Amino acid sequence: MTLAIAILNWNGKKWLEQFLPSVIRYSPDASIYVIDNASDDDSVAFVKSRFPEVYIVENQNNSGFAAGYNEGLRSVTADIYCLLNSDVEVTENWLKPVLKLFSDNPSIAAVQPKILNFNKKNQFEFAGAAGGLIDNLGYPYCRGRIFDNIEDDHGQYDDEAEIFWASGCSLFVRSSDFWTMDGFDGRFFAHQEEIDLCWRLKNAGRKIFYTGKSTVFHVGGGTLNKQNPRKTFLNFRNNLTMLVKNLPAGSLIPVIFARLVLDGLAGLYFGYKNGWSHLAAILKAHFAFYGEIPKSLRMRQKHQIKNYYQSKWLIFKHFSGSKK
After folding, report:
1. Segments of 46-169 assigned E as strands
2. What is the CB-side half-sphere exposure of residue 126 using CA atoms within 13 A?
3. Alpha helices in 204-248 (DSSP H)
4. Looking at the DSSP assignment, which residues form a beta bridge with residue 170?
5. 3-class SS string, 261-283
6. Could you tell me how far CA 64 lies from the centroid of its own chain?
7. Which residues pair with 83 in a beta bridge?
8. What is the DSSP letter of 114?
9. CA 236, CA 280: separation in Å to the nearest integer?
10. pTM (whole model) above 0.70
11. Sorting pLDDT into bands at 50, 70 and 90, what band is 118?
């Protein structure tokens, strides 16, 4: 079973300088690629000179996380892809538990390790924590993180378990499954494209797993800060688009209607809390979503799993204080 670790880079020389050495040190049996999204810093020259053992794939444009990986991975041959953020520190023996899961269970399409916060190493990290789940209204959350509430790591998720989605910051996926799904939906640019991919894989009867026997540390926000309205736009637009593509037919209209109402309330909350540019970003996201509906409907698969969610009405439980 061959493994290729693919790190998508855009003007991220400082992250490559800091974290690429740990990837090389602890991944002796993997091929390592840096897929560069048309950086205008000296990232490519730096990697070529400092890490000659690392392969370079140079994309022609910065088409974002989703399309950038789609473009770059066409030049990568391996049984398993590991899509790894440039701001991730890996640990000794991080690969063995992941590859064992793939080897032992051919029905597994994707695997995520435990993701901890690089700056608070006893705390889970927002983007993935101990494996992704989703509620009936399409709100993603994680074992170890619900909305902005994040747990400390006390070994409570040192298990191996089936999950709904694996985080794109450290996503292991069979190359055959990735390309059977035509890769990521390039329209997403960034954010939630991995949830959409995992949902499509589950609709096709494949499994997504988490292993707490492998650990990585993620800085988070290295490319697009949480307070950036662009991030708000992408999260709201992409989440709605993902729902249109993947919800079972009976849930599609009621869930979308409920989400449009709740997004309006969220816009007022975000505007008050983070600045009114975030309200504008949510309004812009809705109009962009409306324009994409025809294509999203055409991209629906023949089958959608009916029992897609792991919790109901999470947003109400969370903000009422009953589920943190």
Report:
1. 55-58, 80-84, 88-90, 108-117, 132-134, 140-142, 145-146, 149-150, 160-163
2. 11
3. 229-246
4. 84
5. HHHHHHHHHHHHHHCHHHHHHHH
6. 13
7. 6, 171
8. E
9. 12
10. yes
11. very high
